């Protein structure tokens, strides 16, 4: 996730009623407790579920045979004459959910374990095994998908007629839209079988490298620290500008050391995607953006409207950066400053202790509705938040959910900065999204990236709103305005620059692999287009250090952040308008995110057309007001 805000300079009274701020270990976040899911990846419980999953896959293979036999005549299936095929598909669907739930549960646990310790070989092995088993589910699933995509409407409705299969309507309707891109059954099964040691393996390689890489950070006092990537990245949010630059240079040196590996990963992931798109273009041309749009559940018109509005407003983000630079006493910020907190003020406290920060987030959520505050407390009491600073911990933050228990868990690294507090509010927003969908069937709870960012950025907005109301002195007001300016620069400039880099890379990739130098050049071009002269230099190795470019299951994991940021502003704007009715409406919107396309969701719950730039421009006007407020404070 993106960490946007940062300040270690908030007055003690804002976070600790007794006037004391945390020091040392008091700042550190807690350890999560996953034992309620599994004791460990080597435990008998985990091993037993692995064996059970293998058994389910064997059953799925057998159950798929009569469905596979029906594939050649799928377009002509009759619900009356082919009742046996309807029954076979319904039985298969029930067992499929069981297999995906179990595979997801095992995979989430292995990922959580390797996130905390990048050197955990048992967890990495388990992840590899689960990728192979997941491919087995995919291979068994292929015939079912083909029949559901190609069958007539009458057969489709017959399949959906049972209580078990009715929840499949939306997800399978989405798949039916892509029926012109499906491949013969044997090819679909082959692609699924090859993926673990092809496409997915490259993502695993990236995680393995970044989980164990060491960064040499030459600190301003002359000492050199050897740190993991997560620890070094956390320094980019410190108030000491020289330390930030040292951390940035240490990270980039580590990225440069592994540049050939990272370039191979990007080229191999994109090469696989292009090869698959070529196979699927037998009837209609498949564009490299098509899968990202499908995964985001938006149309090209919506993406174009969003990007047009962002392109027209990039100068607003640059203005925020220039105003920030003035307060650091420099002409322009460096790339190591884009996550910087407001400049340190005399007498400021050393940071926000986790328990105090969590209480602020709880109050912010409770201000929207008491049940939301109770949820934050419940997450802490049940130890579902990981916030420690560990040497081999993976960088970044995320929220994940165990499909079997439907329990959400939050992963982050917390050291007391406001950016980390904001990240906590962000990830707890994802967790709350999971919570309100707990009783919804899993096949209707799979929401897209665009809408996933709604609840998380809403959580950040609620936090910022509370902090602004609680601010007792001009310095605190300025710190909050600084955070707003940083948001503007992130979502109006940084995220679009990521999109532009990836778009240019995919346009260039068909001509052959792009070298590490070429990737650096593409990054520089994209940053120049979006940042302009607002920075003193560009981050040439951003393509290597940013995880999102190396995720095999998701392409263009960038524009959903700007989408979610601006969309959530539209949602948050409804809070005062609806008053006591807001929370019910908000939960209703979140519950529909897994069973509606984004355009339909926006029309139903907000009454807006997101295929038009006017909606996005209206949201950007709200950002403009924040930037102008910051500029006014900065000038005074």
Q: Any idea of the CATH class of the domain at 44-183?
A: Mainly Alpha
**Helix run count:** 25
Shape: globular
Fraction in beta strands: under 5%
The run of helices and strands is HHHHHHHHEEHHHHHHHHEEEHHHHHHHHH
CATH topology of the domain at 44-183: Butyryl-CoA Dehydrogenase, subunit A, domain 3
Low-pLDDT windows of residues: 1-24
The N- to C-terminal Cα distance equals 34 Å
Number of strands: 5
Largest β sheet strand count, sense and barrel closure? 3 strands, mixed
Overall mean pLDDT stands at 90
Determine the CATH superfamily of the domain at 44-183: Oligopeptidase f, N-terminal domain
CATH architecture of the domain at 44-183, by name, is Up-down Bundle
Binned, the helix content reads 55-70%
Give me the secondary-structure category.
Answer: mainly alpha
Cα-atom radius of gyration:
25 Å
Question: What key attributes describe this structure?
Answer:
636 residues, 5 strands
Describe this structure in words.
The structure is a single chain. The chain contains 25 helices and five strands. With 636 residues, it is mostly helical. Strands 3-5-4 form a three-stranded mixed beta sheet, sandwiched between helices. Strands 1-2 form a two-stranded antiparallel ribbon. The longest helix is centred in the last third of the chain and has 35 residues, at 474-508.
Write the layout of secondary structure elements.
Layout: H1 12-15, H2 44-70, H3 83-116, H4 121-150, H5 153-159, H6 169-176, H7 185-194, H8 199-212, E1 214-218, E2 224-228, H9 229-234, H10 241-257, H11 259-280, H12 290-296, H13 300-312, H14 314-327, H15 354-368, H16 370-381, E3 385-386, E4 398-402, E5 407-411, H17 418-436, H18 449-470, H19 474-508, H20 516-531, H21 542-545, H22 559-578, H23 582-591, H24 598-605, H25 613-635
Parallel strand pairs: 3-5
Antiparallel strand pairs: 1-2, 4-5
Helix pairs in contact: 2-3, 2-4, 3-4, 4-6, 4-7, 8-11, 13-25, 14-19, 14-25, 15-16, 15-18, 17-18, 18-22, 19-20, 19-22, 19-25, 22-25
């Amino acid at each position: 996730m993106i960490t946007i805000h940062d300040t270690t300079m908030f007055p003690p009274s804002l976070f600790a009623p007794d006037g004391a701020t945390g020091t040392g270990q008091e700042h550190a976040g807690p350890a999560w407790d996953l034992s309620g899911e599994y004791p460990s990846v080597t435990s008998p419980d985990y091993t037993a579920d692995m064996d059970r999953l293998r058994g389910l896959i064997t059953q799925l293979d057998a159950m798929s045979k009569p469905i596979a036999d029906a594939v050649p005549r799928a377009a002509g299936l009759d619900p009356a004459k082919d009742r046996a095929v309807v029954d076979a598909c319904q039985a298969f669907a029930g067992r499929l959910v069981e297999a995906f739930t179990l595979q997801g549960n095992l995979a989430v646990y292995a990922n959580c374990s390797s996130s905390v310790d990048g050197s955990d070989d048992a967890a990495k092995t388990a992840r590899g095994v689960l990728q192979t088993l997941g491919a087995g589910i995919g291979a068994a699933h292929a015939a079912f998908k083909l029949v559901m995509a190609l069958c007539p409407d009458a057969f489709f409705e017959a399949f959906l007629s049972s209580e078990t299969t009715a929840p499949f309507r939306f997800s399978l309707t989405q798949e039916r839209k892509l029926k012109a891109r499906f491949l013969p059954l044997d090819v679909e099964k082959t692609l699924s079988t090859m993926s673990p040691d092809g496409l997915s393996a490259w993502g695993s390689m990236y995680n393995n490298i970044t989980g164990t890489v060491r960064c040499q950070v030459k600190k301003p006092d002359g000492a050199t620290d050897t740190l993991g990537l997560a620890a070094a990245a956390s320094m980019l949010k410190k108030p000491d500008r020289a330390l930030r630059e040292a951390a940035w240079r240490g990270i980039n040196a580590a990225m440069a050391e592994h540049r050939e590996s990272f370039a191979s990963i990007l080229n191999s992931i994109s090469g696989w995607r292009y090869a698959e798109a070529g196979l699927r273009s037998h009837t209609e041309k498949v564009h490299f953006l098509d899968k990202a749009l499908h995964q985001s559940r938006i149309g090209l018109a919506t993406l174009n409207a969003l990007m047009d509005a962002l392109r027209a407003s990039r100068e607003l983000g640059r203005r925020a950066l220039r105003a920030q630079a003035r307060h650091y006493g420099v002409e322009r910020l460096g790339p190591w400053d884009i996550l910087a907190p407001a400049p340190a003020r005399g007498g400021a406290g050393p940071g926000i202790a986790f328990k105090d920060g969590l209480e602020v987030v709880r109050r912010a959520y409770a201000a929207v509705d008491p049940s939301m505050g109770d949820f934050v407390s419940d997450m802490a009491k049940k130890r579902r938040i990981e916030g420690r600073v560990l040497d081999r911990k993976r960088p970044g933050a995320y929220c994940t959910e165990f499909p079997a228990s439907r329990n959400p868990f939050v992963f982050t690294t917390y050291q007391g900065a406001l950016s980390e507090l904001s990240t906590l509010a962000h990830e707890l927003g994802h967790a709350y999204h999971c919570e309100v969908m707990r009783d919804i069937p899993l096949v209707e709870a799979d929401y897209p990236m665009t809408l996933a960012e709604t609840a998380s950025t809403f959580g950040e907005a609620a936090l910022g709103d509370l902090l602004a109301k609680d601010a007792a002195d001009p310095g605190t007001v300025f710190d909050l305005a600084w955070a707003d300016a940083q948001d503007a620069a992130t979502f109006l400039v940084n995220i679009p620059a990521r999109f532009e880099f990836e778009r240019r890379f995919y346009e260039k990739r068909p001509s052959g692999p792009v070298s590490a130098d070429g990737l650096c050049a593409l990054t520089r071009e994209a940053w120049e287009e979006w940042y302009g002269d607002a920075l003193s230099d560009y981050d040439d190795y951003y393509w290597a250090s940013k995880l999102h470019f190396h995720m095999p299951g998701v392409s263009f994991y960038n524009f959903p952040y700007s989408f979610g940021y601006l969309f959530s502003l539209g949602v948050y704007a409804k809070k005062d308008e609806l008053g006591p009715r807001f929370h019910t409406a908000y939960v209703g919107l979140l519950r529909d995110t897994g069973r509606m396309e984004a355009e339909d969701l926006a029309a139903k719950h907000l009454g807006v057309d997101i295929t038009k730039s006017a909606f996005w421009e209206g949201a950007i006007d709200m950002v403009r007001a924040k930037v102008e407020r910051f500029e006014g404070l900065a000038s005074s």
